[in-house]
Amino acid sequence: MTNTGYYNILNLNPNSTPGEIKKSYLKLSRQYHPDKNNTKEAEEKFKEISKVYQVLSDPEKRKLYDKFGEDFEKINSMQQQDPFGGMFGNFGFNFGGGNQVRKSSPISINLIVTLKDLYEGVSKKFKFQRKIPCKICEGSGLDVGKTHNICNSCKGSGKTVIINRNGNMIQQNISICFTCKGAGKSINKADLCKHCIGNRISIESIEKEIDIPKGIEIGNTIRMENVGNLEPDTDIPGDLDINMIIETPHPFLERKGKDILFSAKVNLYDALNEYEISFEHLNGKKYLLEGNGRDNVLKPGNYVLKNLGFPIMKSNKFGNLIIQVEILFPDKIDLSTNQQKKLRNMFKYDQLDKKDYLSDDFTKIPFPLLKESDNNEELYENEEECVNERNQGQCVHQ
Ligand SMILES: [Zn+2]
Ligand SMILES: [Zn+2]
Hints:
Layout: H1 5-9, H2 18-32, H3 40-56, H4 59-68, H5 72-78, E1 107-112, H6 115-120, E2 122-133, E3 149-150, E4 159-166, E5 169-176, E6 185-186, E7 201-212, E8 221-224, E9 240-245, E10 253-256, E11 259-267, H7 268-272, E12 274-280, E13 286-292, E14 301-305, E15 321-328, H8 337-347, H9 376-379, H10 383-387
Parallel strand pairs: 1-9, 11-15
Antiparallel strand pairs: 2-7, 3-6, 4-5, 8-9, 10-11, 12-13, 14-15
Helix pairs in contact: 2-3, 4-5
This protein binds zinc ion (2 copies).
One zinc ion (ZN) is lined by residues 134, 136-137, 141, 193, 195-196.
């Protein structure tokens, strides 16, 4: 007599196919899932159907359940395991534990955003392509009205057993059937679906919308669950991973973690007299920083505006805005003796005592030299050119 209790729980009977068992389980698990139904009874029911499915979806366990009922596990542990148990004659046997819901592979896409999007947080629509079961054959790969052949090599099990004899030792290796690649079935070429040519998939273009949280870092991925591929032989769609990329940099603002960098160039004259630095922030406001040389000469360096940086995720806080000030010097300045004197007075510098530098002990080099950042190649001349070097003492020869 076959035990029927587990089948009743899934609204099935002992003759149900593995496909029917899975279908019923998925339907009921959706219905009683704690996310949808948070009553105590639903929770118990959900646990029950999960437990039952673990047994009925595994051909070996199912066979034991049919024979011994709910206590099969106790009985089974006392018996010697049959290495071929349930392996033959079970069409559609699953590899890797048939009791798991199989999820399709994930998709990863790049979404182009702006710095402002990341600052404000934004809802963005986007399109992507995913694999779904072929719309014509519903993923079977078969032309209308045609059927599968059971694989001749493995008789439908999807597995082959190779027996190696090594003297007295007999070793059995089980591997995936080479002919059907584990499917247990095959299709004649003439019977292939004309739409997917037996690949069983269609490519679908779909649109989704995503909320980008403000302050998210580039390099962080947002995962949308179960909206990706739905491939053949899987039960639920894979996930979609969204990477954000900034294709066009902001014209003058740059992000550095939770801070924003703004680089300002001020010419020397303004830095000494009156200076203004203005910009439009990502928050939409316009800022004007102003000052004058009488109070403060503007010097190069980084100046911090607190709390005007990037929003910090999962908090109400902000980073800082850092103004990187560069002072632009003129290349030449032609001062008259009178102007020099005035300037010296203005800066309150004493006249340099040049006496020490007038002796002949010094090798004089015109200044300025090449800047290290200007042209690195010119700074490192090769050996031959070095021989012709006019400046003595600059080259070392071996
Ligand atoms: Zn098809
Ligand atoms: Zn096969």
